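## Example record

The block below lists the input lines for one assembly entry, exactly as stored, with component labels intact.
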Amino acid sequence: SSTENVDPQKIAFLLRKQWTLYSVTPMYKFSYGNLKEYSRLLSAFVAAEKQKGLAVEVGNDLGIKVTLSTLLGLKGTDQDQVAVLVQIASRSQLPFENAENKVVWSGWFCCISGDDLLESVPEDFTCLSLFLANGAESYTAIVGSWFQKTFDCYFSRLTISPLNLAWMAAMWTGCKVDSHMAATELVFSVPCIPQSLDISYAIHSEDAKALWDTVQKTPGEVTQEEVNLFMDCLYSHFHRHFKIHLSATRLVKVSTSIASAHCDGNIKVLD
Amino acid sequence: ALPSWEIEGMQQRENAKNPKQALQVRRSSLSAWQIGERTAGPKTADLKSAQKHEKGKQQSASDRAGNSTQDHLEQALTYFERGKSSDNFNEVLQKHLATVESIALQRGLSPEGLDVLLNVALSGHLVNTRILKCLIPASVIAESSVVSAVSWLCVGKCSGSTQLLFLRWLIAMFDFIDHKEKLHALYGFFFCSLQDEKLGMQPHLQALLSLYKLFCPELVSITLPAKMKTYFKNSESLWKAAINTIRRRNQGTSPTSQQLILGTGHPQSRKRKWNTQLILPACSTDANNPTRSKEINHADILSHSESFPVEQLHTFSQLLQNIHRLEFPSQMGSVLRNSLLLHYINCIKDESIYLRLYYWMGQTLQEECTWYKLDNQQYEEEFKDFLDIVYKTECFLQEGFSSCEEFLYKSLPLWDGFCCRSQILRLVSWIPLSSFSEMKPHLCEPLAQLFFTSSLYFKCSVLESLKELLQNWLNWHVMQLDVESDPKISPLNTTLSGLVNSVAELIHFVGWIATVALHLENNATFLLYFILDFYETHSCPSLVFICVRIQRALKSLPFVHSFRYRTNLVAAKENELIKKTILQFKFSSQTYQEYNQYIMAMVGCLWTSSAFQKDIHPQGIRLDPEVLKKTRVQEVRNSFNIVHHPALMGYAILFLQQAWPEDKTLNFNLIKGRRWNWYLEYLYVQGLQGLKLFIESSINRVSQVSQTKSGNVQV
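Predicted structure tokens for the full assembly:
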């Protein structure tokens, strides 16, 4: 978290939505100064793709409106690029002046601690390597294609490995939550024929937090050993009761009162 | 991207005929259609292509035996040709329509069939939309059909939307029309129809014309709003999937001269990701990116020296003329399909180009790899095609891509050795030269694992690919020597000693796997051929190991291999000499010692008939007498000299026959003393110059007459 001005409304808007994750290669000749222009072009593009087949001229009344804006407060470090939010809103059919546009799709790009991953890319490139999308897949496809064509970048679905999910489980369990804490749930997948078997393991948040507090040595720091230990404790507890070795299965979903994540690359932040 | 017809029209356009002439109502003779060559029967339905609409019909069509499908098609076409009934819900009509659709999607329609259907569709038939949607050509479209179709437009029997659909179809299928001269003459008609109320000045037509005006302003007289930016929905998508599948099916592997269209876009198949990049992006200019276009327009508002758009680049001379102002395509991946642009990026030293290509290719290879992600298995053919393109590009540029190298390192450990085998092995041969210790865990170990556990054919393929790898390293290094070395970029591995080290280690690696492979495959001659081939590329002292192997395989060594072995020997000698002339080498004394020992061993074999004797070198060929006894070969010591050597024995026989023609028994022992020298001369006359070189440089003959003594060349 940086010291920039945070727009609480915008950030709040990101919560309680399911986001699909993509990784994006660096964008070529992307300019923060041209966001308005990009909005216009992308609006026309989206409208053209959605319509029945006629060409669409930029600037006309299109029925949908795309806005690109920056999202402050979402940088990992100061070297990271500013996050960019893209929203598609459909023009309201009502003729009222103050009729609001309903947001039908949102996506945002951000940079996650880029300094260690991507060493020095030349100036022409902008590293916004994480993209999160919420809304209809067709819109994601259209917006993604436009970015790919315009900035020569590449989107690929990001999957979350069980190792990373375990990290998330540990870290989120350790966070303090004031409001009512939902149960912490871990879902494991076992490959079976004909269909895979899913095991859901739910723990009281207080218990989970208590366990994590005994494992974590330094507050604010998380190490791999601590995560492993945390998970091993949970596994052995499960084994004691059910005689199933969860360590041999594959962790596919983690859900806590703060956030949830699925290995397919979907996350949801609740608080 | 601009459809190709616009460019052609620009180049070949005749004077626009008076539109009124084009409006003559014509009706081509429909009775002339015949089914062309009888097709050999329906190809088996390609279960892989999930891009068909009507799967059910497809399967039922494939169930029918050969000719009956053809009959159905003939019936359907006859029905349409006669086409009196305008009853849309006629069962017969539906049945015939279904037949036509299924066959069209399965293998395309013949030109004559297309002719019939086009006329039907545009003459007011009620199911014309469905018909237009299934007009997939199997091979070509006759120009006459198109011309007659346009003439139908003039009659005005079909609705505006049908006309629009026809125009879309025409644009999508333009490249399939066999001749286009008459079509070019009809452009006047197309422009005229813009003034028609039905079509009107629709924005898409306006936009198309404004593009056309960019290229040929003198031909478009209509005033159009300037600087119009428009987006078009991808209109070919309706037919694109079907075209590609049918083309691939009908023609087997696509010929290299064809355009590299791979796979298909997302609209047809819901399962295919939208961000799939197996479709090479079209070469379109960067004008999409307003940052870029602002930069470009800024300079050229007044002057005419605008940048040359990449769509207009068709010939090499154009490239040369415009090289200073060429625009790059918006997606760098598209250069893979354009050899002119490849020339261009070969000479331009712009880091951002390489980076863009690097990111794109790296991601594409990783995402589309069929053994990384199980979802991709059904797209193996397309991935193979893509790998082929990457390989061809590397051959064109004569260097390997680092993204490709990284992909190989990541994917080889997971590779089964079967999927896309020839493509992957060819890509291995383009791995750039680098420190071998880096390569070893990533390349050598997984490759060795696969090598030892695979078939003979795979082993040979790997050896061949490693031979190519070696060759490419050597070639690349030779080219580097020519180029002025930039002091900035000269990492350790491009120096000569780096090259030598890596080469030596690679050869050592190959020697190891080859030895084991011969063991496993029981000295299969096919394998031996490839091993010898490798050593011929850049032979080296490791030749000696072959002696050992060959000795064990003494029973079944065919003449061919002997000949190859001899060639290797010769080449070894020559190469060593060449190497020595490059004095930049700082050979250690150890290398010299090894070299001397090899020479001694070879001389011992060839000359002094003391094979397998004194040799303390670890790779040497000294063998214990007991082992030699086990081979049950008489006269082991002689067995590799110039008379008895399997490769040279043929010459010895010929020599004996010439010298003693009446003597039927071949007594090799006759060749000694004076006759040994004659025999040697005989060999030289036969063209074994390499042997001559070797013997003259390595062997110091004390006397001309009888005794010979071997010695070493002074180093």
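The first helix of chain A runs from residue 8 to 14. The two ends of chain A are 15 Å apart (CA to CA).
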